[in-house]
């Protein structure tokens, strides 16, 4: 994130590092996004080339550019979240809580490494596919684009290929770092909610017990802090997540369509093509499922606070003391969630809806393509 210039911190006009983000942003826009958008106008009417344009670069880069901008402008708010995470880590009361947070940190690390490796394997496969295609259709760009100069002459061709590869690396860096960072924030909240549930279960429920009032006050403050934490995530990223949801739906549809077209071609590189599309489709599914999974976990853990309050020995309390638990339970009835533009919450149900919508659009594209070939 520091290399890309989007590491969350307070931005200052007199700091050079605050403007580092302009370098990857310019590369993504000037080398891929704008040239591909111009080329989209040139190929308009050819459904195969339109689908290729949207799938292999344009939609992905547009989302990456918007992610970069949103994440950069949210730097100060995200810095506050990082400070809260550090305070939560230092406030762990028991060894069990510390182990739970360490386990979540390891899960986030594995997800980050897995997503990063998957994307760069896709870039490597794409470059290999491009090199193999040169034998069949001549010198072509890695990403079909329009540039206001002769890209076929040397060294223009080689430099353009290098620039597109470097810009694709920037896209992958932004995509994986932002997605895994947001996932880490949400996983942290889930871990803190698990700790909070355990504290509720371990409450000493005895009448006229001063320790009970101290503990319940700490639990309420912590619960309120976690609610604010999730609200900050939601307010900063809900527009970005809406773009992610729509973009992944379109990408999944058009990439599956390109894979079907590749199956119908009779050339010597079909194995490389299918391998590339398999990795690419798997990465798109991984992206959207990651958000749906953390959203489902957040909903489940936040509602679980209500069950944890019921599981403590509340029947030993006086009516006035038991009412304090009821307030917590009433608050927990409204689950915490992350949404796509405040339209819908990320969950397993949304993931199924995205798959169904993408496959519906895919069937329409396939039918249109069959009609055009006939």
Order of SSEs, N→C?
A: HHHHHHHHEEH
- For the terminal residues, how far apart are their CA atoms? 50 Å
Shape: elongated
Overall mean pLDDT stands at 81
Number of E-state strands: 2
Written description of the protein model:
- The longest helix has 54 residues, at 210-263.
- The chain is 77% helix and 1% strand.
- Strand 1 and strand 2 (344-345) form a beta hairpin.
- It has helices spanning 22-42, 47-73, 75-90, 95-137, 156-201, 210-263, 270-311, 319-332, 348-373; strands at residues 339-340, 344-345.
- It has a two-stranded antiparallel ribbon with strand order 1-2.
- The protein starts with 21 loop residues before the first helix and ends with a helix.
- It has one domain.
- The chain has 9 helices and 2 strands, in the order H-H-H-H-H-H-H-H-E-E-H.
- The mean pLDDT is 81.
- The protein has 374 residues and is mainly alpha-helical.
In short:
With 374 residues, this protein is an all-alpha fold.
Topology record:
Layout: H1 22-42, H2 47-73, H3 75-90, H4 95-137, H5 156-201, H6 210-263, H7 270-311, H8 319-332, E1 339-340, E2 344-345, H9 348-373
Transmembrane segments: 16-34, 54-73, 111-137, 166-191, 241-263, 269-292
Main location: membrane
Protein name: Odorant receptor
Keywords for this structure?
sensory transduction, 7tm6_olfct_rcpt, receptor, 2 strands, transmembrane, two-stranded antiparallel ribbon, transmembrane helix, elongated, 374 residues
């Amino acid at each position: 994130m520091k290399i890309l210039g989007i590491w969350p911190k307070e931005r200052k006009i007199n700091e050079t590092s605050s403007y580092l983000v302009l370098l990857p942003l310019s590369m993504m826009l000037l080398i891929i996004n704008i040239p591909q958008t111009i080329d989209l106008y040139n190929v308009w009417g050819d459904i195969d080339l339109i689908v290729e344009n949207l799938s292999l670069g344009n939609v992905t880069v547009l989302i990456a550019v918007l992610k970069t901008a949103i994440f950069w402008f949210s730097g100060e708010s995200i810095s506050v979240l990082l400070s809260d995470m550090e305070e939560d880590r230092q406030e762990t009361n028991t060894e069990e809580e510390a182990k739970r947070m360490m386990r979540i940190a390891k899960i986030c690390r594995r997800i980050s490494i897995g997503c990063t490796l998957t994307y760069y394997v896709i870039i490597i496969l794409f470059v290999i596919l491009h090199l193999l295609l040169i034998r069949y259709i001549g010198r072509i760009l890695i990403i079909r684009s329009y540039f206001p100069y002769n890209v076929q002459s040397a060294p223009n061709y080689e430099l353009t290929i290098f620039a597109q590869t470097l810009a694709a690396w920037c896209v992958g860096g932004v995509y994986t770092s932002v997605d895994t960072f947001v996932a880490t924030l949400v996983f942290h909240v889930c871990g803190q909610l698990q700790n909070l549930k355990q504290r509720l279960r371990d409450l000493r429920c005895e009448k006229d017990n001063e320790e009970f009032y101290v503990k319940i006050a700490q639990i309420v403050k912590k619960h309120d802090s976690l609610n604010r934490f999730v609200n900050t995530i939601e307010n900063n990223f809900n527009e970005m997540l809406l773009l992610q949801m729509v973009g992944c739906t379109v990408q999944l549809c058009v990439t599956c369509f390109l894979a079907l077209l590749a199956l119908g071609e009779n050339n010597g590189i079909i194995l490389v093509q299918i391998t590339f599309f398999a990795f690419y489709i798997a990465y798109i599914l991984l992206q959207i499922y990651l958000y749906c999974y953390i959203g489902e976990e957040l909903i489940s853990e936040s509602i679980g606070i209500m069950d944890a309050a019921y599981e403590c020995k509340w029947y030993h309390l006086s009516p006035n003391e038991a009412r304090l638990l009821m307030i917590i339970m009433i608050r927990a009835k409204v689950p915490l969630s992350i949404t796509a533009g405040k339209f819908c919450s990320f969950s397993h149900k949304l993931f199924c809806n995205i798959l169904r919508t993408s496959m519906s659009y895919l069937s329409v594209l396939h039918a249109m393509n069959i009609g055009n070939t006939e």
